[in-house]
Amino acid sequence: MNDAYIYDAIRSPRGKGKTDGSLHEVTSVRLSAQMLNTLKARNSLDGHAVEDVIWGNATQVGEQGGCLARSAVLASDLDERIPGLSINRFCASGMEAVNLAANQVRGGAGEAYIAGGVECMSRVPMGSDGAAIAVDPSLAMESYFVPQGISADIIATEYGITRDDADAFAVESQRRAKTAWDEGRFARSVVEVRDRNGLPILDHDEFMRPGTDMQSLGALKPSFQQMGEVMPGFDAVALMKYPHLERITHIHHAGNSSGIVDGAAAVLVGSKAFGEAHGLAPRARIRATAKIGTDPTIMLTGPVPATEKILADSGMEIADIDLFEVNEAFSSVVLRFMQAFDVDHGVLNVNGGAIAMGHPLGASGAIIIGTLLDEMERADKDVGLATLCVASGMGAATIIERV
Amino acid sequence: MTQFTMSTDADGVATIVWDTPEKSMNVMSSDGFVELDGLIDEALANDEIKGVILTSGKEGSFAGGMDLNVIAQMKEAAGDNPARGLMDGLMATHAILRKIERAGMDDKNKGGKPIVAALPGTALGIGYEIPLACHRIIAADNPKAKIGLPEIMVGIFPGMGGTTRLVRKMGAMAASPFLLEGKLSDPKKAKAAGLVDDIVPADELLEKAKEWVLSATDADLVKPWDAKGYKMPGGAPYHPAGFQTFVGASAMVNGKTKGVYPAAKALLSAAYEGALVPFDTALKIEARWFTNVLMHPSSSAMIRSLFINKEALEKGANRPAAEDQKVARLGVLGAGMMGAGIAYVAANAGIEVVLIDRDRAAAETGKAYSEGLLDKGISRRKVTEEKKAEVLARIAATTDYAALEGADLIVEAVFEDPGVKAEVTKAAEAATRPDCIFATNTSTLPITDLAKASERPEEFIGIHFFSPVDKMLLVEIIRGKATGDRAVAKALDFVRQIRKTPIVVNDARFFYANRCILPYGNEGIRMVAEGVAPALIENAAKLVGMPLGPLQLIDETSIDLAQKIARATKAAMGADYPDDAAKDVVEKLAAEGRMGRKAKAGFYDYDDAGKRTGLAGVLGGWYPVAATQPELSEVQHRLLFAQVLEAVRALEDGVLTDIREGDVGAILGWGFAPWSGGPFSWLDIIGAARAVELTEALAATHGPRFEAPKLLREMATAGETFYGRFGARAEAA
Q: Are A244 and B536 within 8 A, CB to CB?
């Protein structure tokens, strides 16, 4: 089996996912194409240099539909012989793209891939592609469907995570993100978004609220209490699946949950031979990949079993991991991960996460792999693990090691 | 026998009159469908007929619903493949209704004949689904009429096109109270909701219907869903607004039905899947889901208990032969909560009531209870001032036993003390004529013992009401050893007058209902002591379809009552008393002053207004929650079998003589998992063999109270079902 290596990893800055967000004017095809063009330019990927572009996206409808990956290739400077594959594993789509690419390379199906993803949440709203699990009564009822915010609150209730815990975690995410930006820690990855005329549109993560403190978060009302307790009453459904709980404690709000943003990311994955042929030095080896299904009602606990699986599959232990990136979909997701593996916050999301900078669904998996790699290089750590919770009860994980 | 007849007038308007022989209200039968189909064919083929009025020959009603034999006949129509028989039968019905709806129109929606439904009154189930297929629904202004689709109440859903048509007509959100809750409307409300098109004076019904037929244009005949560019009101499932509706509907139905009622889920699924396809495909989908529900054992069991057998019991299935025993003048002794409630329901049913208590003030307070309920009715516009005055005028509150003169039934609801009861029995018998029946509303004391105070034990009987009397549907009639048939007939006729459902049981400790519900409460309480998470106990009960968890139930009925019953039972049983584990917890709560809801402290905490705020935190200190919790199914089986085994023992002991009463009584009396059809139906669903297997496991872990009664073991060995073995007798009765 071949080894698969990361040669480069880039991302766009994250724009506020609203109509007044800076990236709202940029189409998802164009934002994707800019990532592809940047990778091509930085790594001289002329001609049929990569086997495919595997592109994650969670809302494949409208401009993000119709195999966005192929559209993005055609809109970019890449050779048209590179086809393009759109994939959807919701929030882990970008990671799944990287993992698929790695495993194709490992299996010998091509020497190199561009893998990543995009989500223009201000343009293609989350959920606008429909979802049988939420809408089809026979499935929704049998799977005890509740929206993610309720699931995050079930995690908090089940594992004793308090509002204060969650708020403190969010404050720290903001603080760390600010420090990381101030110190230029994302400089290698972040690619300024420019218009057709070369004029700058956005060069920083504009969602951040660096001044956030416990007091400002304390003023926010729980976001999911109304839909949980009153209309339409999702808590009752949650308790059917978790009958030992008396009630769901609603602790999440906009300030301790991930932000809705626009963004994209891309990773260049290839074999050793690919690097040699193109004169590129590998930055890290993709050591292991994993994906797993979990209970769809609590939905977002996937990082725990995904991590257990990836460690078991690769014969590793949690202590072998030097650095962690756990996607900050909701505070409780990460706090539960830390609780389950007794991982210290000091080695996890050290540059902040999606609570501070935002979570462009289809891109985040690729973003956190890049963030992890940058930090491993900066802090001189050998082995890193990235993982995300995934809608409908799934999880995904990737372990990388520096070479 | 002819059920539909057609006549055509000089203007070419045909009137089809539905008149089911020997029924006070029309019901649709298999033959009825064939006749209706034939007449529609004839009307559409005959060039002299311009249009059709479909109406009823019954005064004040159009139709009450479907003869349930139709379903049975469909099931049998395809031999050993009942699903095929149902599907084919339902599709054939859809074809008839669709023929009415299309009425000969071509594919450009031209050339059809107008068909109007003229409803003199009540139109339920298929009695509303047929009008829904017509081009216009005109209802008489009959305020007593009920219009709607109540199918969901008996465990099925409107499966003759009602679901598909109503969702398309008004949108999923607007249709949901009528489909998912079976909400019925009088004509005025039906018009406001869009269920009917016009309301006209009753004596102009046919005239107005004819006017409409003669003035109808081609466009008036086309249903929105048959017109080009139809869009579902409120949005189809993947339209942003429809999305919210459907996501919310699943959650609401799931939370409300706790996943145990297949009909609601099937209905929603039929609505959802149907909304995504053209109309005729939607009907096919509706038929598939309806078939699925009709094949579900829960639906058959619910129909049997809540529809067929409930009605049979109300009509006197177990009434001994005796002349009419309708009550004219009722004496109620004791004007507390129960006595006051009994006085209210009787007066409300037109019976003269003498309400007696020891002092005048107490008697008046008892009467004021009725006034309060009537005022509440007025504020909800269910009762008029005139009605209130009439009802109150029927209640004479007094302290004087002489007022009982002329009473033909006495119900005593005094303090649960044999001495007090004996005293009032004697006093009442002295004041009434010799043929007056004396009933005790005791819930715990044996009737045969109380009858000892009576001069006329043959005329002495138990009539056990449930609290609150005006809301609870069941009345348990208890035959003492000496109770005569006329007393039973009297009690049954009285219960029929007040429009409740009776069961008749023989005398034994706690009779039937309390005998079964007490172990349920005790089982829940035991689990608290064992360290089972109280939330798990309560949720497990609800997830198996119980309306209240056992701990909430005990809080509602009060800890001191539980304590009193436990102490009395222990005193009576001595060393055989099996429930010390539960009694200890009750004693602990009582010692701590946590007397239940009325004390704003019990297994639950309450706020100052008496609203439950959550399971009591202090419980965890006294009975720490164990680190390892049982499986949900184990908790559920314990709670179910605690009741169900007692029901079987009641049958074995001869307390119950009819399993129909056991099932109907359980559902109406204490809310036993209605989806199951009752304890005996539930045992039939899971099978006696499986029940014995489950109880053996429970007995091994939790003790001999779970040992299967001999009868159940026998049935398991013989492979019998309760309705197979005892149902025939019930039908003969």
A: yes
Q: What is the pLDDT of residue B733?
A: 40
Query: Which of the residues of A are catalytic?
Result: 91, 359, 389
Domain B4-300 coded CATH 3.90.226.10: yes
pLDDT mean for each 10 residues of chain A (403 residues): 96 98 98 98 97 98 98 98 98 98 98 98 96 96 97 98 98 98 98 97 97 96 97 96 97 98 98 97 98 98 98 98 98 98 98 98 98 98 98 98 97
- Taking CB atoms and an 8 Å cutoff, what residues of chain A touch B534? 246
Interchain CB distance below 8 Å, B250 and A144:
no
- Measured between alpha carbons, how far is residue B696 from residues A325, B703, B712 in Å? 51, 10, 12
Q: B578 burial class (0-12, 13-18, 19+ CB within 10 angstroms)?
A: middle
pLDDT for B68 equals: 84
**ipTM exceeding cut-off 0.90 for this assembly:** yes
Q: Do domains B329-507 and B509-733 have the same CATH topology?
A: no
In chain B, which stretches have pLDDT less than 50?
731-733
Structurally, at CATH architecture level, domain B329-507 sits in 3-Layer(aba) Sandwich (3.40)
How many angstroms separate the CA atoms of A165 and A339, rounded?
12
For residue B628, the chain A residue with the least C-alpha distance is A244
Q: Which among B250, B258, B615 has the least Cβ separation from residue A246?
A: B615
pLDDT at B720: 96
Count other Cβ atoms within 10 Å, centred on residue A112. Answer: 27
User: Which residue of chain B comes nearest to A125, CA vs CA?
Assistant: B240
**Domain ranges across chain B:** 4-300, 329-507, 509-733
Q: Does domain B509-733 have CATH number 1.10.1040.50?
A: yes
**How many whole angstroms separate alpha carbon A245 and alpha carbon A371?**
37
* Amino acid B444: pLDDT: 83
**For A232, which residue in chain B has the nearest alpha carbon?**
B248
Chain B partners within 8 Å of A136 (Cβ): 237, 269, 272-273
pTM: 0.92
Cβ contact, residue pair B632, A243, below 8 Å:
yes
Q: What residues does A15 pair with on adjacent strands?
A: A262
Return the number of other C-beta atoms located less than 10 Å from residue A172's C-beta: 18
Give the other-Cβ count within 10 Å of B381's Cβ: 7
**A246 with B535: Cβ contact below 8 A:** yes
Note which residues in 117-136 of chain A have CB less than 8 A from chain B: 127-128, 130, 134-136
Over residues A209-241, the pLDDT tens digits come to 999 999 999 999 999 999 999 999 999 999 999
